[in-house]
């Protein structure tokens, strides 16, 4: 009598998709920690080849639906108010689906806080006080990548 294992019941497509997701998480983790510009560039190229895009929205207008505010920096230029000054942590999309929002620093007009991002708090303090556990809309990931399925 033959004994069937659970592995025989797994759909090959489901298994391939699960393995792809695992590899994407690993690449995001590695890219976050890459110290070499060459290694980071190669990781981004590989991810882009399979449909995953790294997001660096520097210079764009801050949009809380697409960006996570990690802090602010003052400016006297009204044209820069609400514009992203720099990206603290890359965001990622997979064929247009947000995997992790980028954590950004937003220009704030000196003497005002029109975007609700007060002072120069660090990213962790902002997320804790605003109830945003991670860049994925409040759901913390178990592996620390910010990626939730």
Automatic annotation (TrEMBL):
UniProt cross-references to InterPro entries, sorted A to Z: GrpE (IPR000740), GrpE_head (IPR009012)
Keywords in alphabetical order: Chaperone
Name the UniProt record assigns to this protein: GrpE protein
Listed Low complexity bias regions: 131-149
Database matches in Gene3D superfamilies: Head domain of nucleotide exchange factor GrpE
GO biological process annotation, one example: protein folding
Recorded superkingdom: Bacteria
Organism the protein comes from: Actinopolyspora xinjiangensis
Gene Ontology MF annotations: adenyl-nucleotide exchange factor activity; protein homodimerization activity; protein-folding chaperone binding
């Amino acid at each position: 009598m033959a004994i069937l294992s659970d592995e025989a019941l797994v759909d090959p497509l489901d298994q391939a998709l699960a393995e792809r997701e695992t590899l994407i998480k690993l690449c995001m983790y590695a890219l976050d920690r890459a110290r070499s510009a060459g290694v980071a560039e190669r990781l981004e190229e590989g991810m882009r080849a399979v449909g995953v895009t790294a997001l660096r929205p520097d210079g764009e207008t801050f949009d809380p639906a697409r960006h996570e505010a990690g802090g602010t920096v003052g400016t006297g230029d009204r044209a820069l108010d609400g514009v992203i000054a720099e990206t603290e942590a890359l965001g990622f999309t997979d064929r247009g689906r947000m995997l992790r929002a980028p954590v950004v620093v937003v220009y704030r007009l000196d003497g005002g806080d029109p975007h609700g991002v007060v002072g120069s708090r660090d990213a962790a303090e902002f997320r804790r006080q605003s109830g945003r556990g991670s860049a994925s809309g409040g759901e913390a990931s178990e592996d620390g990548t910010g990626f939730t399925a």
